[in-house]
Amino acid sequence: MTEKLLHEIFNDAAYIILDMAWPKKCDFIAACYYGNFEKVKSTRYISFNQLEKGFEPTCKAGYNAIAIIILEIMKTRKSVYKFCDLGLGYACYGGHLILVQIMIKYGAKHFDWGLRSACEGGYPDLVDLMIENGANNFNSGLSFACKGNNPELVDLMIHKYGAREFNYGLTSACEGGHKDLAKFMITLGATEYIGGFFSSVKGNHPDLAKLMAEYNPGLYSEYQPWMNGTGPLPPPVSLYDDDSDEYDSDEYD
């Protein structure tokens, strides 16, 4: 049985199950999720909430025709630009070039969001397209290229476009669990070891946390069992004082 046939059988079965078991108000969202163009096209009286919830999976999967239907509906409700910018980010992250072009045609303007999404997703052609349209936050691009473990784009942001916020790259590489890029950021001058440590904790990467802790010996003793693989991850530290609802500004110094 071919992969294509299996895919068709799966989709047919999914639609039958959705028709039988899902509440009707969810039909539109489910149709977007599974790329069921005919069901989307035939749906009437769609709420803004349904459109918003259906648009994200549509763009992430690269369903061009369904995206156009939603954008055309949003044109009548004067919310199309917000949707275009959201769609631009999702489409760039997924590498969907045609869908990116559709978002631009309908009025997407936040090309820096597209740039960082393309850097994280690892799509140089989309990075170039975003820059051609005016994106210029290359430090953000560097950060997200590190988070997505895309050395080629890290190199592009640094050497072609002059990104120099290596601390951003360090913390993002730590959060993503990419040790080689974290080390590379340190060789370039990154020193945000505390941020790198807690980004490693956030991403649950004890090997990187241990690397960051080497630059601050003894500072994170409560995390040692977790870093050594002999204990659980400690609970997160609150950013609030015990007797106050205000943020502790020292956490951000």
Structure notes:
This protein is mainly alpha-helical and 253 residues long. It has 2 domains: 15-136, Ankyrin repeat-containing domain (Serine Threonine Protein Phosphatase 5, Tetratricopeptide repeat, Alpha Horseshoe); 164-237, Serine Threonine Protein Phosphatase 5, Tetratricopeptide repeat. It is built from 16 helices and no strands. It has helices at residues 3-21, 27-34, 37-42, 48-61, 64-77, 80-94, 97-105, 111-121, 124-132, 138-147, 151-160, 166-176, 179-187, 193-203, 206-213, 224-227.
Task: Quickly list its features.
globular, Serine Threonine Protein Phosphatase 5, Tetratricopeptide repeat, 16 helices, 66% helix, mainly alpha, 2 domains, 253 residues, 0% strand, disordered N terminus
- Number of helical elements: 16
CATH fold topology of the largest domain? Serine Threonine Protein Phosphatase 5, Tetratricopeptide repeat
Query: What CATH architecture of the largest domain would you give?
Result: Alpha Horseshoe
Q: What average pLDDT do the residues reach?
A: 84
* Radius of gyration of CA atoms, rounded to a whole number: 22 Å
Unreliable residue runs: 1-23, 238-253
What is the name of the CATH superfamily of the largest domain?
A: Ankyrin repeat-containing domain
Q: Please tell me what the overall shape is.
A: globular
* CATH class division of the largest domain: Mainly Alpha
Share of helix among residues?
55-70%
